[in-house]
Amino acid sequence: MSNPILSAVHHIAVIGTNHEASRHFYVDLLGFRVVREVYRPEKRDWKIDLELDGCELELFIVENAPARPTHPEAAGLRHLAFRVDSVADTAAKLNALGIETEPIRWDPYSEKAMTFFRDPDGLPLELHE
What we know:
The chain has helices at residues 19-29, 87-96, and strands at 8-16, 33-40, 45-52, 55-61, 76-83, 105-106, 113-118, 124-128. It is an alpha+beta fold. Strand 2 and strand 3 (45-52) form a beta hairpin.
């Protein structure tokens, strides 16, 4: 394909169930750098944005997250995000291919445009500027 739709992976998001253990594992043991760490009282969880050599990992800590049968908010991989130059343009290209996207919204933490779509098995995928 001479003009790919996606330009790069933007970040990977994982749900953990223990703040101290997950933070220790990713930061102290694996060497990720903490970019920001926010407790979100409205969701009753922690969001820790991590970085390692340009690779971003969003770590959500949800103490009572159910095991993942199919839910996007369960323990394990939350979604896979792809970096694009324009979420609007890329969403339009996906829509033209018959791939439905959610309405574009603004990420309040990164202050960038984003939207979600799903793979054939229902895995949430994200476009992020």
